[in-house]
Amino acid sequence: MSRAVVPIYNALIRTHHITSRKKVASLKKAADKYACYVLLRSGGSPGIMYCEGSEDSVRDWVTIVQQLRYKDYRLAARPNELGSKAGEVASRPDSRGFQEVTTVKEFGVKMQEFGIWTWWRIAMGYGP
Hints:
The chain is of the alpha+beta class and 128 residues long. The chain is built from 4 helices and 5 strands. It has helices at residues 21-33, 55-67, 104-113, 117-124, and strands at residues 9-15, 37-41, 47-53, 74-81, 97-101.
């Protein structure tokens, strides 16, 4: 029996910084509520947020981030479907949840693990 392929969407947000633990708690709560995966780079500049899940969950999570009014908020990559080859969809063992890292390097390593490093670099303005 074949499973229906559900497209995975993702988005990338860049801010000046992410230091408010109250806002981070709101982001985690929203990730749980919308059943999406969120990777957050907090503690300094730049603040980076990556979200992936269903189209609706990613769009709803991005709306929550916008409502938190982060300084220098920039939607670096709008919610869009992740590319796939021959109908294959990348999947994460932890396709839901919330993960926080403290350095851009750690964030980049995660992007490499997810197979979206080039996409991430371009969205961040680092070039191809």
